[in-house]
Amino acid sequence: MKRFIVLLQFLTRIPINVNLKVDEDDFFKGIIYFPLVGLVIGMFIVAAYYIGVKLSGKLLGAIFAVIIEIFITGGLHLDGLADTFDGIYSNRPKDKILEIMKDSRLGTNGALALFSLLIFKIALISSLKVIDSYGILLLMPIFSRLDMVLAARLAKPARKQGMGNLFIGKANTTQFITALIIAIIPALILPKIIPVIGLLLGFTVWYVKHITNKIDGMTGDTLGALCELSEVVYLLFINILFRW
C-alpha cells in the first residue's frame, strides 16, 4: 500500500496528505502499481466524460475527459511528449538531442505534437459509442501505464542521471507480468478489449527500439511521451476494431 501511495503522489496531483519515508527502491519496486494508478485516473476521466455527455453530448464529454486527465496528472506526460518531439525530431546528434530535451522552453515540434495529440484524442473519444465509451475510457490510462512498465523493462537509461532512471532499466520480467495481471483484471468488464493489450505492447516494443536508435536508451521524457502516444494508439485501435 505504501508504494502504491508513493506512485499515486508521483504520477498524479491528487492531494494525498501522507508523509512517507521513501527511497529509490520504493519507486522501482512500486512500478507494478502503474496500472492501478491508471485505474484511479480512469475513474476521474469517466466521471468527467459522463458529466460532459449529460450536459451537451459526446463532444463536450470528450473535451471534459481530456481536460480532467491533464488536471489530474498535472500535464506531466504531456510535458514529456513536447520535450521528446523537440529533441528526437531535431535531427541532431544524441548529446544535442538530450540537451534540447532538458530545455524547459517549448519548441515548434513540441507545440505541434501537443496540439495534434489533444485534437486526435478529443476526436477519437467523441467518435466512440456512448454505450461502450465508459469502459473504454476507464481502461485507457491503465493500458497506457502498463506500456510504461514494459518500456522500463526493455530499455536502458539514456542519461547517467534523471527522473526516468528511477524505473528505466530496473524493472524486471516478474514486475511486468504482475503489472499485466493487474491491468487485465479490470479489463474483464469489457473482454473484447483485451486483445488490444497485445497491439499496444507491440507498439511499445517498436517505440522503445525507435527511441533507442536515436539516443541509445530512454529518458523520463520519452517514457511520458509513450504514455500519451499509447492512449491515442489505443483509441485508434478501438475505433477501428469496434467498427468491424
UniProtKB/TrEMBL annotation:
Subcellular localization(s) per the UniProt record: Cell membrane
Pathway(s) per entry: Cofactor biosynthesis; adenosylcobalamin biosynthesis; adenosylcobalamin from cob(II)yrinate a,c-diamide: step 7/7
Pfam families named among the record's database cross-references: CobS
EC number(s) from the headed UniProt entry: 2.7.8.26
Spans traversing the lipid bilayer: 30-51, 106-128, 134-155, 176-203, 223-242
Cofactor: Mg(2+)
Catalytic activity reported: alpha-ribazole 5'-phosphate + adenosylcob(III)inamide-GDP = adenosylcob(III)alamin 5'-phosphate + GMP + H(+); alpha-ribazole + adenosylcob(III)inamide-GDP = adenosylcob(III)alamin + GMP + H(+)
HAMAP family for this protein: CobS (MF_00719)
Role description: Joins adenosylcobinamide-GDP and alpha-ribazole to generate adenosylcobalamin (Ado-cobalamin). Also synthesizes adenosylcobalamin 5'-phosphate from adenosylcobinamide-GDP and alpha-ribazole 5'-phosphate.
Protein name: Adenosylcobinamide-GDP ribazoletransferase
